[in-house]
Amino acid sequence: MHQAIVNLCGGHAPLCLDFDQDHTIHDLKQRIHTITQVDMGHQSISTLGGRILTDDDLMFNQQEETAIFNMSLRLLGGKGGFGSMLRAQGGRMNAQKTTNFEACRDLQGRRIRTVNEAKK
């Protein structure tokens, strides 16, 4: 018997499950489904190195007695984030050039506003 340790998402305690040598990731997903009621289609199993495994992949190498996996959930994406908004705006943000530099500082660290007021 070999052990599979599965780190679940959402801060739940890891599962420690016993399997035979020839079991696949599909078998692991079935076992996780019976324990957590998370649908197999929503489960994404990956190695500790981050490689996402398919259902046909074997759980254990010839040398391994224990394998550690991460389970994450597959979620639908949204309409896009901040990058999508920036693309939609195009060059409009750069079109408004700054003309008031009074809040900036000169090389000595003084505000341009105070330097201009001192000149007057």
TrEMBL record:
This protein's name: Sde2 N-terminal domain-containing protein
Organism per entry: Phascolomyces articulosus
SUPFAM superfamilies according to UniProt: Ubiquitin-like
Domain of life: Eukaryota
Keyword Transferase part of the UniProt annotation: no
Gene Ontology terms: cellular component: cytoplasm; nucleus
Annotated coiled-coil segments of the chain: none
Family statement: Belongs to the SDE2 family.
